[in-house]
Amino acid sequence: MKCPFCGFLEDKVIDSRVSQDGDVTRRRRECLKCEKRFTTYERVEEALPLVVKKDGRREPFDRMKMLAGIQKACEKRPVSIEQIETVIKRVEQRFQDLGEKEVTSSKVGEVVMDELKKLDEVAYVRFASVYREFRDINEFMKELKELLDVRKIKNEK
Question: How many C-beta neighbours within 10 Å does residue 8 have?
Answer without folding.
Answer: 14
